[in-house]
Amino acid sequence: MEFSYHIEGGDFSKAGLASSEVKKILKQLNVSASVIKRVVVALYEAEVNVVAHAYEGDVRVDIAPERVVVVVEDRGPGIPDIPLAMQEGYSTASAAVREMGFGAGMGLPNMRKNSDELNIESEVGKGTKVTMLTRFNP
Amino acid sequence: MEPFYHALKVDPKTCVGCTHCMSLCPTQAIRVRDGQASINKNACVDCGMCLKSCPRRAIYVAQDDFSRIFQYRYRVVILPTVLFGQFAEDVTEDQIFAELHDMGFTHVIEAAQTYGILAKATQKYMKENPLSRPFISGFCPAIVRLVQVRFPSLLDHILPLKQGMDLAAIYARRKFTAEGVAPEDIGIFYVTPCAAKIAAVKSPVGEDASDIDGVINLDFLYNKIQMGLTLHKDAPLPPVPEQTYLSPDAIAWSLSEGEASRFEGRCLAIDGIHNVSDILEKIENDELLDIDYLELRACDHSCSGGTLTVNNRFLTIERLRKRMQLRTEARPSANDIPRHEDYLIANGRLREKIPPRSIDQLDDNFVAAMEKMEKIKRIMQVLPAIDCGACGAPSCQTLARDVVQGKAKLNQCVFMQKLLCKDALMTAGESLRLSERTWGISRFEQPE
Ligand SMILES: Nc1ncnc2c1ncn2[C@@H]1O[C@H](COP(=O)(O)OP(=O)(O)O)[C@@H](O)[C@H]1O
Ligand SMILES: [Mg+2]
Q: Model-level pTM?
């Protein structure tokens, strides 16, 4: 079963819409609260990254009986050095973005912590595709 | 004890199924059938939004028969602070106490007298359980129920403590039994400003039984006091032995910021049940991480906006602020409750865990739930997405949900009926009969 959502870059007020919707869906499927929290936290961080670092993006959520796969794909500057970006505290966020309380450099590490499989593909100048898989019965 | 007792009732003679309550209910507990609002017991959290939103006053709060107090020799009444806020400034606290005695109560206690103990118990629990941060106050029973129904993952954050009215009741029972009064001679009654506190007495959460024997609705008691005041206008004021001094903090406890302003760290005071839902959503998503304490109240302006209050809530707050300025010397006796602090703190914990009451899941079986969700998705593509309520459900989404759960028919939707009629798949008569089922037959009868 698939669901999709659109994310507009720069619109911080709407970051979290997709994760809220996904939470509602998983609650209806009787997924355990702890798994829901992991999925929601990881997706929220991915949404914020599109808003903070890219121009626009799309979220696709695919739910099967044993797992959920979340793909967040954006048009944006891309990530030149993925291992560096994955480091805790690393951030290129602008002063303005930090001002708003984002840009602690914990987004990607949190996404890794809260998913069972994380895959990032990125092309500089084009965009980034983040794929996260979370199993319901870990 | 009933599992989910609810005091909110729909008067079938007055309700016309207008849908106001249905759209505002924070748990989508209301549907309209046969021209009547009906409340789903499993989803209702007793917040009283339905009562407040009803333009015809068709929703009321059931109450115990007042004469029940006379089954007891010791008739104790526990008062919420907002009771005093219902009266004009020229009505004194002493007059109100005197009227309560006159109507038959032998002892009057204010729930706020337990304030200091409650604040201490709260601090103690927070210190001993730092991992349960952010702490969610258990003050408002509608909020505790909202968390059970909609945010069960946050249940461990609720402070598992008894509230002021419970502590006052435990105190009274202990005091009088120590004086040799037989337990069955003691009747303890709480004057409630809302339907949620009634539910908290009749179906307590985290307890097998309440320490309170009965509930009196605040609006009912207000009228009784007013009547007495008129009657005794020219009589001298009889002495009222137990009127004690309450500190401004104690008086403020049930108002907004009353709790949040007392504790250390980052404390938020949020009132209005929809505002509370928004904040709990953020907490559940880990979007708000460094909060220490959440004072959450279902009513706008907390208890001064309770469903059973009579006075305008802004005037209630003004009146209570006046009371905060009263001087200590004016009170005849000292508050006796703090002497029992150790006992009350030791007995002030909830005995059981607060259980979840979640209503979200479509099916216990994952695959079945997925199938239902697929169906809901398909149904949503044909529904008009205007949430008009004419089908008897609060939104297109809830109708779709009801349909897959076998609780409603898709063709209850008037938009669907038009589509079907257009394609000659439904006759006007069939469409009318469907509408009659939602709105009641009499609604479609020609006026004489
Ligand atoms: N979708 C993206 N597009 C471009 N750059 C990104 C994207 N996501 C992450 N980055 C880069 O990786 C860095 C680290 O990301 P993250 O751990 O989420 O921290 P933060 O967003 O707080 O800076 C970002 O500062 C940014 O340089
Ligand atoms: Mg980030």
A: 0.91
